[in-house]
Amino acid sequence: MIAVRSIDITDYAAIVTPQSFGRPPRLDWISIADLVIDPEYQREITLRGRKNVRSIAIAFDWSMFAPVVVSPVGASKFAIVDGQHRTTAAKLCGIERVPCMIIEVDRGGQARAFRAINGNITRMHTLHLHHAMVAAGDETALKVAEVCRRAGITILRNPTEHALLKQGETCVVITIKKAISRFGDKAVIAGLKAIAAGEFNEGLLQQAIIWAVVETLHDHPEWLACEKALHAAFDTFDLDDLQREAASAAARLRGSSKVDQLEGLLVEALTAAFAKPKARAR
Fold first, then answer.
1. Which of 46, 102, 164, 219 falls 20 to 30 Å from 34 in CA-CA distance?
2. Which pTM value belongs to this model?
3. What is the DSSP annotation of 69-116?
């Protein structure tokens, strides 16, 4: 059975509710030809917006189309309060009518509704988007999840401070996705395992560290031959100290990044570690 939850307001502080909730909206299908834009509060569709419109149109699906919020203006027209981009995408697909939620407010009320709808948005963190895409069966998200599973890494569901992360936990998704695309599964899995293997490496599965470690191992495939030897080599230095040293060096050198400096330090440290007989034996 799928685990679901109900709407729960137990932990919310009590509020003083408004004396009036306004006129309830009504729902209807309205011809796109009857929908208009009020430039006093509506945005122009920018170049980025046009790309978004095309993306919606190319993958158009009614299950992902929220009703357009509109308000009556004149005899038979309706001003779009929210949904200009998706309505434009629908028209681009040749669709003539869209589902609308009709609110009965004047022009000032339309502007206030526009501000409220577009301003009171809880932004989706990349972690939330990742888990949603995994649930939706997205190929890329499933790949990231599988690589992390093979590396013994847990992608948390909510953003968490580095200091509170337990061993093997991370909030980094985009960096891992990009690293898989650029360096391949083997280097990413080995890198994630090496970072997490250290006894005191809680909270170090961070963007710069992950990228630097994975790229270093990708550039030196000979270090991937024995996992035990690789982990033993990582035990010969403090990864947290290296990243602080890298950040300090990058701050002093113009044109240098923390990742670049950390990669250089990692190569030096791992070269020295693998040169020791103990590291080779393990």
1. 46
2. 0.72
3. EEEEETTTEEEEEE-HHHHHHHHHTT--EEEEEE----HHHHHHHHHH
